[in-house]
Write a structure and sequence with these properties.
It is a single chain. This protein is mainly β and 141 residues long. It is 7% helix and 47% strand. It contains one helix and ten strands. The strands form three sheets. The protein has a five-stranded antiparallel sheet with strand order 1-2-3-4-5, covered by helices on one side. Strands 6-7-10 form a three-stranded antiparallel sheet, with no helix packed on it. A hairpin with an 8-residue loop joins strand 3 and strand 4.
């Protein structure tokens, strides 16, 4: 795959940017990929390997600079890095206390927590210790 893509870039060296706009198909034994270069200097690269687990859609912007096609991609990755803990404390019968910590057990201060109570959303931020308290709802007692 890398070899083909490098060859593709080398072949574009002498073309003006308007001539490279279009959709390109990359076929191999292991994949069926497409690269679409759009007039607005955006692109979509669809990676389609043998397994659905390896499929990806990559988007971003492109420029042709000194005969080299440069693809800048938009990359977003989400992972679970925050834990929300409902702290059950006998002393706070009238409140629900939540602790917000990261994966390393460090408290997260100033973290906005939304609490749904009787169809109303109550928003509060955690304190320096990553703690926030809400008055218990009638429906949750």
């Amino acid at each position: 795959m890398k070899t083909f893509f490098f060859t593709f870039i080398v072949c574009l060296l002498n073309l003006p940017s308007t001539e490279i706009i279009g959709k390109y198909q990359i076929e191999s034994e292991d994949s069926f990929d497409t690269l679409e270069l759009r007039k607005d200097n955006t692109y979509e690269y669809k990676v389609r390997g043998k397994s659905f687990n390896s499929w990806m859609d990559i988007t971003g912007s492109w420029i042709l600079k000194d005969g080299v096609l440069i693809l800048n991609h938009n990359y977003q990755y989400e992972e679970e890095t925050i834990k929300y803990i409902l702290k059950k404390e006998p002393a706070s019968k009238g409140h629900n206390t939540f602790g917000v910590i990261d994966l390393y057990e460090n408290p997260i201060p100033e973290f906005e927590v939304k609490y749904l109570c009787n169809n109303n959303v109550i928003i509060k931020k955690t304190n320096k210790k990553g703690i926030v308290k809400f008055k218990k709802c009638d429906l949750l007692k």
